[in-house]
Design a protein that fits this description.
Elements (H helix, E strand, L loop, with lengths): L1 E2 L4 H13 L3 H13 L5 H4 L3 H6 L1 H12 L3 H4 L5 H8 L2 H8 L7 E2 L11 H12 L7 H8 L3 H12 L9 H14 L2 E6 L2 H5 L17 E7 L12 E7 L20 E2 L2 E3 L3 H20 L7 E7 L7 H8 L6 E4 L7 E5 L1 E10 L14 H19 L17 E8 L9 E10 L5 H17 L2 H5 L3 E3 L4 E2 L2 E2 L5 H14 L5 E4 L5 H8 L3 E3 L14 E3 H19 L1
Parallel strand pairs: 5-8, 5-9, 9-18, 10-17
Antiparallel strand pairs: 1-2, 3-4, 4-8, 6-7, 7-19, 10-16, 11-13, 11-14, 11-15, 12-13
The structure holds zinc ion (ZN).
Zinc ion binds next to helix 14.
Length: 558
């Protein structure tokens, strides 16, 4: 094995193939330490040597490396750019590594005269290699072809384009242009919402789409086999381009549409949920294309609208024939694996009262007071629906199937008894549970309340199911797709990602239930910061996601 500072790419490939990944675990530890200190690797990772040498994080990084021999050259996603950045630090780094390399310094591996530190490396290699698979030459070639800088630049460009649910057209046009530039076959079309709404499986929609065009977008690469294709296997990457409203800017420290890059994090609405996953997948496909990896089948990327309010984008893509054999939905999972997602059904309920002057309020019936009774029975319903959950993944959550009231509106004058109250919320759908039966149970619960309440009996609650209607969906925990992505992460990081269940609805269920093929949620970013002010994603996590997608795609076809 050689470390060749003047030709980082060569060194990278060889290092990766033998020992780099083994000590990745140590690299992770080092990074975690830095993160705990609030330190940033931004300068180093941004490929800016000047910043790398002056940034306080660099100092701490070097201190950390002092304790962990060789970690620096073991980082698996070092690219030509990173190594170039590190070149400025070479003298110090080499001093820390306690050896003096020449152009072809042998560290370990194929040398006939093992260097001093081989023993350490071999020992660690044995410790970890029982479950870490070596990357093939094809894989390392594709990983090296990943253009991390362009990926991050393109992601930031996309984050600057506002694409709140219902107003995604500009972003879709921009991305279609970008996909064409990268060499994908692009299908861009206007979604006919009215005809979709007539479909019996219409997944629901909350926003008004009468003023803005709804656009579908799918990019595909047909693969190159070097000969006749023997397979028409198709792997789909799916990501939604719509984002939730950014809310009050005063609650943000960063510009929600500025895509600011600070200390290794990109801030902005949609950075985590989920433009980062979408772009990581796109650049993963590009890396495979650029590396000339033969794929016996095709890779597809679906950029979908309207996920946040039901999933019409994925629904429309499937109806248009953009189906496949498996789908990776790049939702923020912290690169853990989510093969099971609960459903969520949005409801709107109108509570009637009777208006009267406040001074004679007993003459009226307050819709707010009636609502308080409704609220109580709904909380009780939530409790019942969450007791004794046996599902192996969802059962681990504190509240797998929440029933949430998200919006309440009532009254029109402070001195009038409120004559009407409208509330909206969502109720979770359990794994394996039919959404119709959940709607029925909800309606039944409110009907039973009315039996004991004369007013409600004569003035029934009006219940509507007009918003997002997410069924639950899952594939087995030990499904091939889960194992495939798990192994990819293990090989890249030395750590096995967790397998989890999600208490929220997603497009996964459309692939599994409607498309009839497996799907998995797997992407960068932490859902805990989604939909929040100062939503962010870690740059390194985005890059790691792209690397994992590259491996997953290659292995899917080989
Ligand atoms: Zn999302």
């Amino acid at each position: 094995m050689y470390v060749e500072w003047d030709d980082p790419a060569t060194g990278l490939v060889r290092l990766l193939s033998i020992t780099l990944r083994v000590l990745t675990r140590l690299q992770c530890v080092a990074r975690r330490q830095l993160a705990q200190e609030g330190a940033a690797l931004a300068g180093l990772y941004a490929g800016n040597p000047k910043r790398a040498t002056t940034h306080p994080a660099t100092e701490r990084l070097l201190e950390t490396f002092q304790e962990i021999t060789l970690t620096l050259v073991i980082e698996p996603h070092q690219t030509r750019r990173h190594l170039t950045a590190l070149t400025a630090l070479k003298p110090r780094v080499l001093a820390l590594l306690e050896f003096t390399p020449t152009m072809d310094t042998k560290l370990c591996g194929d040398s006939s005269e093992p260097p001093e530190n081989e023993q350490t490396v071999s020992h660690q290699l044995r410790k970890v290699s029982s479950y870490v698979m070596a990357l093939t030459e094809i894989e390392t070639g594709a990983l090296a072809a990943l253009d991390e800088q362009k990926l991050i630049e393109a992601l930031r460009d996309l984050l600057c384009i506002q694409s709140v649910t219902g107003q995604e057209a500009t972003a879709q046009h921009w991305l279609s242009h970008h996909m064409r530039q990268l060499g994908l076959d692009v299908d861009l079309w206007t979604i006919d919402i009215a005809s979709l709404q007539k479909h019996p499986w219409f997944p629901g929609m909350e926003v008004d789409r009468s003023k803005h065009e709804a656009i579908g977008l799918v990019g595909a690469w047909q693969g190159t086999t070097g000969g006749d294709r023997s397979s028409d296997k198709r792997l789909i990457f799916n990501g939604h381009i719509d984002v939730v409203p950014e809310g009050d800017h005063a609650n943000w420290q960063h510009d929600p549409w500025g895509a600011e890059l600070v200390d290794g994090r990109i801030y902005g609405r949609g950075s985590c949920d989920m433009k980062s996953g979408l772009m990581a997948a796109l650049y993963a496909i590009k890396a495979i294309m650029d590396a000339g990896i033969p794929i016996d089948g095709s890779l597809m990327i679906q950029s979908v609208i309207g996920e946040e309010d039901g999933g019409i984008g994925t629904f429309a893509s499937l109806l248009r024939g953009h189906t496949g054999d498996a789908a990776i939905v790049c939702e923020p999972t912290r690169l853990n694996l989510i093969p099971a997602q609960a459903g969520a059904l949005t409801f709107t309920v109108r509570v009637h009262g009777k208006s009267a002057h406040a001074c004679v309020r007993l003459e009226g019936v307050s819709a707010i007071e009636k609502y308080l009774d409704v609220h109580k029975v709904l909380i009780q319903l939530e409790r019942e629906r969450n007791s004794e959950i046996e599902h192996p993944l969802l059962g681990k959550l504190a509240l797998p199937y929440p029933l949430n009231i998200g919006r309440v509106q009532a009254g029109n004058w402070s001195s009038s008894v409120p004559e009407e109250l409208v509330f909206e919320g969502r109720i979770g759908v359990a794994m394996g549970e039919d959404s119709d039966s959940v709607r029925h149970q909800f309606e039944q619960t409110l009907k039973e309340l009315a039996v004991a309440d004369r007013w409600l009996c004569n003035h029934p609650l009006e219940i509507g199911w007009s918003g997002g209607q997410f069924d639950s969906g899952e594939i087995p925990m030990d499904h091939y797709l889960v194992k495939l992505c798990q192994q990819c992460m293990l090989d890249l990081t030395g750590d096995k990602p967790e397998i989890e269940g999600a208490p929220y609805g997603s497009d996964l269920r459309l692939f599994v239930n409607m498309g009839g093929f497996p799907a998995l949620l797997f992407g960068p970013g932490d859902v805990k910061v989604a939909h929040m002010p100062d939503e962010f994603v870690d740059v390194q996590e985005v890059i790691l996601a792209a690397r994992a997608y590259i491996l997953a795609a290659i292995r899917y076809f080989h």
